[in-house]
Structure formats: C-alpha cells, structure tokens
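[Discussion] Sanity-checking designs against the backbone

I'm trying to build intuition for which residues belong where. Below is a structure token string of 311 positions. I'd appreciate it if someone posts a full sequence so I can compare it with mine line by line.
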C-alpha cells in the first residue's frame, strides 16, 4: 500500500504558486467590492501604452449602522506593470508619486509587440487613509487578452479585495477582536494559524506574526510575537491591548502577517507566508456585518472569525 503524505508536511510547489499568481484576477471568485473603469490605447508609433482612469466605484464601504456615520472615501490608483517574477513602475514618475485619480492619464513604455507576457496591476487605495501596506484591493488586466489599438477603449474590471483572496491562499488565521469602549482599548487576540502552505513545508518550522495597527493610514502600533512551532497548525494565543479612542477605532486598519523562520542557519530573512487586512473595506459575503463592523457595533463583546492569508 502506498504511504499517504501526512498533512503536516504540506508543501506549496513554487511552480503552482507562480501559476496561481499569474491567474489571479481572472478565475478567482470573490465578493464584488467594486469596479475600476480604465481606457487603454497605443501611441501612433506603438511604443507607449496609454492608460486613463475613468472612475472607481466602491461597493464595500462601512455600514453607517455599524460605525454611526456616513463613510467618506477618495479612491486613488497605483499602476504597476508585471512580467513573470519582476515588477516595476512606469509613468515617468517615482514609485511614491505614480498614482492615478479619475481622469488622469499615464503612459507605460512597453511596445505593442511585447504585451503577451505582461499584466497590468492596479492597486486601489483610499487617499484619505493612504498607506501602501493597506490597499483596498487590486485589479489585474492581462494585456494579451484585450484588443489594443490607437483608438481608446474602455474596460471595466472588478476589484479583488485585499482582505481576502487577492493572491494565492496560503492558510487561515483565527482572530478575536473586542472594542473595550470604557477604557478605549482594542483587544486583539491571535488564536491560531491553520492550513499553512509553503514551498519549504511547515512541519517542525517556527512561525511568528507581525501585527500593524493603522489609524487614518498612519501606523500607530507594530507588534511582533514570539515564535511557535507548527504541528501542523500553529497555536499562538497572543493577546494585545492597543489604546484607541472612539474616533480612532472607526479609522482603524489591522494588518496581520504570518512569517516562517528560515531553515538555513546563515539566513536571517524570514519567509512571508501570507497577510490579511481587517478594516473598513472587507467584503461582507453572506454576513450583514464584517468582522471589523461587528467589533465597532458590539463594544465589550468578543468577536472571533477566521481570515484568509494571501500572497
């Protein structure tokens, strides 16, 4: 009888990870959190791909019944051109300033006969709460699949949420949130990580988390846990208390990253397994409130949910 591979030795084939990443935005099913409309066309010499942002329609905004007020958002889009494993920014500007607001136009210096391996990646942010670590979501456009000419054509694409499946799913993390309104503290508890997948396996490896808390896009807290061994899941049971006022809790974002320590003795670079964002732009799915909205709407109550880790 052929021996079965034990679950604790699960590995993610690098080739499978790369293929899944190439397919992102094309075959994934996810709650629709909004749409981006862009216009694309080529310059007369076929040397420059022109892109204009027409509009951004956001559907996954906080429920006023949960936060007690109407939500105000100003979308901004960062443009990135991806080719296999390399990623670079274009538009004649630096990475920090390469952005689009509605009706802006930029150019991508890529020849028309070289688009077959290129993918346009649009990262959608909230300009009022901007931070590169907490995008609202992503739009991926395979240039080979659209008909590009000298005449501009409009394309509408769904926004894949950054707080759920935008990349390759690498596991899940279980989190408990509690808004302690009398003491004005956010109680954050990371319970466990399950279904972890890595090209280097998981059995016997040490894992730790990095947790970032943002208020209006500004990082106010960065917390790192101690390491725990996988067998095959990781039991963390980490408890944090973060001081946030009633105004700050409504403007808060929580970014949780799971890392694995390197197996190589001489390497000090940890491997990022995946991330998840808990905040205002989470897709609701079948629930009336998201985890973040439930925390605000039900102070002094512990709310526990599991969230996908993505790359």
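Best answer:
Here's mine. Compare freely.
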């Amino acid at each position: 009888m052929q021996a079965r591979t034990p679950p604790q030795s699960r590995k993610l084939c690098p080739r499978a990870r790369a293929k899944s990443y190439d397919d992102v935005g094309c075959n994934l099913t996810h709650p629709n959190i909004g749409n981006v409309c862009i216009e694309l066309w080529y310059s007369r010499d076929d040397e420059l791909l022109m892109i204009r942002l027409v509009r951004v329609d956001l559907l996954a905004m906080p429920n006023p019944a949960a936060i007690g007020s109407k939500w105000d958002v100003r979308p901004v889009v960062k443009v990135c051109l991806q080719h296999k494993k390399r990623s670079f920014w274009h538009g004649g500007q630096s990475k920090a300033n390469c952005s689009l607001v509605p009706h802006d136009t930029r150019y991508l210096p890529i020849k028309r006969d070289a688009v077959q391996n290129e993918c346009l990646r649009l990262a959608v942010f909230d300009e009022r709460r901007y931070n590169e670590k907490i995008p609202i979501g992503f739009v991926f456009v395979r240039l080979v699949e659209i008909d590009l000419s000298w005449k501009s054509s409009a394309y509408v694409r769904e926004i894949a949420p950054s707080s759920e499946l935008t990349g390759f799913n690498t596991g899940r993390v279980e989190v408990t949130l509690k808004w302690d309104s009398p003491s004005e503290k956010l109680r954050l508890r990371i319970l466990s990580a399950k279904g972890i997948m890595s090209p280097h396996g998981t059995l016997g490896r040490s894992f730790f988390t990095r947790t970032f808390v943002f208020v209006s896009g500004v990082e106010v807290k960065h917390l790192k846990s101690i390491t725990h061994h996988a067998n095959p899941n990781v039991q963390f049971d980490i408890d944090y208390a973060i001081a946030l006022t009633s105004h700050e809790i409504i403007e808060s974002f929580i970014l949780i990253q799971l890392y694995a320590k390197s197996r190589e003795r001489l390497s000090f670079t940890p491997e990022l397994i995946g991330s998840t964002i808990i905040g205002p732009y989470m897709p609701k799915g079948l629930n009336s409130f998201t985890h973040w909205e439930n925390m605000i709407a039900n102070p002094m109550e512990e709310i526990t949910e599991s969230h996908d880790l993505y790359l």
